[in-house]
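F-box domain-containing protein (Rhizophagus irregularis), 485 aa
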Amino acid sequence: MSKLNKDILFLIFEELQNDSKSLFSCLMVNRIWCETVIPILWRNPWCYDIDYSNKSYLFIIIASYLSDETKKILTRQGFRLQLVSYQSFLFDYLSFCRSINVKIIESIFTIKIYSYYHRISLQEEFYEHIIKKCPKFKYLDMKQIKIRIFSFPEARLRFESLSELECESSTDQSYFYSLADISQHIQRLIIINYSDTVKFGIAKLIEVQKNLKHFEFIDHYYCFNFFIMDSYKEIILALEKKADSINHLRIYFENHDFTLQKVLPKFHKLKTLTIHCKEFNVEQLKSGVYNDLEIFNIDYYNMNAAFIIIENNGRNLKKISIDFISYINVRIRIPCENFKYNTLILIRKIHENCPLIEYLSLIFSPSEQNFSEFEKLLKVCQNLKSLLLIIYTLETNEMILGKQVLNTLIKSAPTKLREIRFLNHIRFSSEALEEFLGNWKGLALSIITSDSLYNIKEYKKLIDKYKNDGVIEDFRCNRTMDLLI
């Protein structure tokens, strides 16, 4: 490795750009490695899983770019600024930066700056400097933005090539109008919604984009007034004009909407569709054909819509994820009357229409019919790699149910299956688990469960045995939410 030149090292480190732990460790190897890694780390220094509000050294780096007069003010306020000039550092860090995350930058300024007025003033100076310093920005997260960064003289040149944006609908709409005038090449747009107001600025920003490919709208607002149904309308109508370019669409609507249902069939180039809405007009959905659809996610309460989308577009689907958590939480005591029928039809639709499926979440009752259809699915879907399984019942003994599941998997599981996740009402006796593992003929398995039962000594000893034999790749107990595919 010591003989690799910088170009080769750069290509290797590029592959690790989302693995901050490995990149940070590479900094300590030698000078060449450090010089190669720093530009990658500082391309988007706000994206790593660290506590930015407790990293004073980041503030020191940021503060080094502030004016001498500002540094003197900070020093008088009692903040020690070692290495007060960026020429003192080995690197001109901000010159590598291609991103801004407003919330994280503000959290860095709150380390020692307690006055709101001073924080705003310092951030204004910092943004003015970073916008001068960086040749161009590719990514912007402007949630909780308070500084009018688009009014700086160099803003047009720096944000013109912006390709990713995350924002909040509650932001002053004038920010979106300003950004619409500057940035027309955004490809990935994520909006977090906190209000029911009409969002004309966001709609305008969508309208001017020339190649929007990925769009997400995630509601964190619920309105109890049933008659307010048009708060999404302007955004959906603007989005309709981009139907020919959008490949990835994720919509979480908490309130009623009918505009989306009318235009959804027009998004014929979708590869990813995640749709969570209050109601669906299934007749309108029947005209929706997405020949390239590979990933589909929907909540349990829209099963009729799921049946139509899977039947119309199943042949290239590789991942189907049905959100069952809200259903389980509501129906924890009494499953709805059509639960057995809905889950039976879901399994049947998948094995009849989705031969290429690789990642799948399933919920069903332990009826003979459901198990029969589940076995057919395992035999037909030979590309299946990962399975999340929820058997929902209040009657069947959990150990008996677990043994039935394991027997079905031994008999019919596809050879490519390498990960199984178990959730709710499925438990295995140590005898049943050992029989299953002893008869497993496929790839080394990762088994993930939400049940802490398997942490006791009897199970740990059994699991370690089959890890050593190469049958188990991993066996762990996670929180319920972490099990979702």
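The mean pLDDT is 84. The CA atoms of residues 239 and 304 lie 25 Å apart. ok done for today
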